[in-house]
Design a protein that fits this description.
Layout lengths: L16 H6 L3 E5 L3 E4 L2 E5 L4 E8 L5 E9 L4 E6 L10 E9 L3 E11 L2 E6 L4 E3 L4 E7 L14 E6 L6 E12 L1
Antiparallel strand pairs: 1-4, 2-3, 3-6, 4-5, 5-13, 6-12, 7-11, 7-13, 8-9, 8-10, 8-12
Length: about 180
């Protein structure tokens, strides 16, 4: 029997760090490098001078408010990807965000290698603005020759602006593997 639409095998849901964050209510914490929940963490350029807080309120996964004194090179939210995107025809994400004013967030898939890591940026940046906005982006791993098919680890990284103050909310984030 020929099937036009094969039902994809879903990625494993075991130890899904996004589900943990989605189910958490975390009171305001200082905005600094470190763990948000297991397998999700902030990585911030040590040269940045920033004051602020992040929290996980009931209606958002994350809300960040910062006042930047000295800009830096990166301010990033890292998420361990709990499956191998190379095992699927398509890998991507859906995000719902909001911000006090328009800002863009670059997103990449970071793959661990024997010599360090390989970054592959998604084609489109997330545009956050007042009011909730949705964004979807996909990669076709088999069509990307320089993407290592197998790796000891992979991360999805959201690079927030590191040269200005911001108020940014991540209402939802979902990984897609088809």
């Amino acid at each position: 029997m020929h099937r036009l639409f094969a039902k994809p095998t879903p990625p494993p849901q075991v130890l899904d760090p996004l589900a943990v964050l989605r189910g958490s209510m975390i009171p305001p914490r200082p905005f600094e490098a470190g763990e948000v929940v297991p397998d999700i963490w902030w990585h911030i350029d040590p040269s940045i001078e920033v004051l602020g807080t992040w929290e996980s309120p009931r209606d958002r996964m994350l809300e960040v408010t910062t006042t930047l004194t000295t800009p830096g090179h990166f301010c990033a939210l890292h998420l361990r990807v709990p499956f191998n995107p190379g095992d699927y025809a398509y890998f991507g994400f859906v995000a719902r965000t909001a911000s006090d004013r328009a800002l863009t967030t670059r997103v990449c898939l970071r793959t661990g290698t024997d010599t360090g890591h390989h970054d592959l940026f998604f084609p489109r940046d997330i545009l956050s603005q007042q009011g909730q906005t949705d964004h979807i982006d996909m990669l076709a791993p088999a069509q990307i020759p320089d993407l290592p098919r197998y790796a000891p680890w992979r991360e999805l990284i959201l690079f927030l602006p590191s040269r200005r103050s911001l108020t940014w909310g991540l209402h939802d984030l979902r990984l897609i593997a088809l």
